[in-house]
Specification:
3 helices; single chain; 3-stranded parallel β-sheet; mainly alpha; 10% strand
């Protein structure tokens, strides 16, 4: 799946538009698929394309070249989302 997507993104005739210079993904598992696609297509990081991952990856710094990883506080995000849903729910309940 990633191989096909990356191949299409990097080879589309886009007129005056430059091809993408980065791929953003939301998990380490997706990052692995993208890195495999980069390797298969012989795309070099960061010369040809970059990868940014929204996940806390232990291996990101060990990868050569290092992958840009943005850690997310998933527990805090989930807690805040739950609190917001409860506020919305309470504000829409009609009291008779």
């Amino acid at each position: 799946m990633w191989l096909l997507l990356i191949r299409k993104l990097t080879s589309l005739p886009m007129g005056n538009i430059e091809p993408p210079t980065a791929v953003f993904v939301g998990s380490g598992n997706l990052a692995i698929g993208v890195l495999r696609a980069f390797n298969h297509l012989k795309l070099m990081m960061p010369e040809d394309i970059s990868l940014v991952v929204f996940d806390d990856l232990e291996w990101a710094e060990a990868y050569c070249p290092p992958v840009t990883a943005i850690a997310q506080k998933t527990t805090q995000i989930g807690s805040t989302a739950t609190e917001l849903l409860l506020v919305i729910r309470e504000s829409t309940i009609s009291i008779n």
